[in-house]
């Protein structure tokens, strides 16, 4: 229980990131995807649905991670390990999204459109971020850890471009991320922090 108390934020993020997997697993079992051919019409419908749902959750978690620093600037609340948990959730959902894309369209389809290529690059960048989102990596890499994690900015830009080209629900995520970048501007950041300190 002591471990949970110390890491309650990490646990909450893990639960929130895992809960949507329950209905997704129900879709898998009810569609017969686990037992039938992938070429089956019902299976293809299920794969398509899972492909879109996992993509939606990956962009949500990505936006949440990028909102951590603005949240700290505005309210003074931060927790590095909660942010790491969010990063892990982002990577897992993104990898699931890519997996279902391959099942739905095939791996070679990745290189047929600009938006697919951008999504693929974003997924590749997420892998080293995922592998270093832990305390051991933080201790070993020291100052280099932060440099690696900064690639998250590139990931969100690639991902948002990917979503915009697909003409999916992108406006809300762009507004949140855009406001986050504005709050990070040194002049704006110092204004907010000075106001918070008074």
Describe this structure in words.
This protein is mostly helical and about 200 residues long. About 80% of the residues lie in helices and about 0% in strands. The protein has twelve helices and no strands. The longest helix has 26 residues, at about 40-65. The protein is globular. The chain starts with a helix and ends with a helix.
Helix-strand makeup class: mainly alpha
- Percent strand equals under 5%
Termini separation comes to 37 Å
List the total number of helices. Answer: 12
| Helix percent band | over 70%
Biggest sheet, open or closed, and with what strands and sense?
none
Q: Roughly what is the average pLDDT, rounded to an integer? A: 86
Give the uncertain stretches in residue-range form. Answer: none
Say what oligomer this is: single chain
Q: Provide the gyration radius in Å.
A: 19 Å
SSE topology string: HHHHHHHHHHHH
Overall geometry comes to globular
DSSP E strands, number: 0
Fill in the keyword field for this structure:
198 residues, mainly alpha
Outline the secondary-structure elements.
Elements (H helix, E strand, L loop, with lengths): L1 H5 L1 H11 L2 H11 L9 H26 L1 H8 L4 H26 L8 H18 L3 H7 L1 H7 L1 H16 L4 H14 L1 H12 L1
Helix pairs in contact: 2-6, 3-4, 4-6, 4-10, 4-11, 5-11, 5-12, 6-7, 7-10, 8-9
Briefly summarize what is shown.
The chain has 198 residues and is mostly helical. Helix content is 81%, strand content 0%. Helix 4 packs across helix 10.
């Amino acid at each position: 229980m002591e471990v949970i108390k110390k890491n309650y934020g990490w646990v909450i993020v893990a639960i929130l990131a895992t809960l949507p997997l329950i209905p997704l697993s129900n879709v898998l079992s009810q569609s017969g995807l686990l037992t039938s051919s992938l070429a089956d019409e019902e299976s293809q419908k299920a794969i398509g649905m899972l492909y879109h749902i996992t993509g939606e959750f990956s962009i949500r978690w990505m936006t949440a991670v990028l909102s951590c620093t603005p949240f700290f600037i505005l309210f003074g609340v931060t927790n590095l390990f909660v942010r790491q948990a969010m990063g892990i959730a982002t990577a897992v959902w993104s990898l699931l999204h890519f997996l279902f894309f391959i099942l739905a369209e095939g791996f070679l389809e990745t290189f047929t459109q600009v938006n697919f290529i951008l999504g693929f690059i974003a997924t590749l960048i997420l892998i080293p971020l995922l592998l270093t989102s832990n305390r051991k990596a933080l201790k070993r890499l020291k100052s280099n850890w932060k440099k690696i994690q900064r690639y998250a900015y590139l990931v969100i830009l690639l991902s948002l471009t990917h979503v915009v080209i697909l003409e999916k629900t992108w406006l809300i995520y762009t507004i949140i991320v855009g406001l986050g970048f504005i709050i990070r501007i040194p002049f704006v950041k110092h204004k907010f922090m000075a106001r918070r300190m008074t």
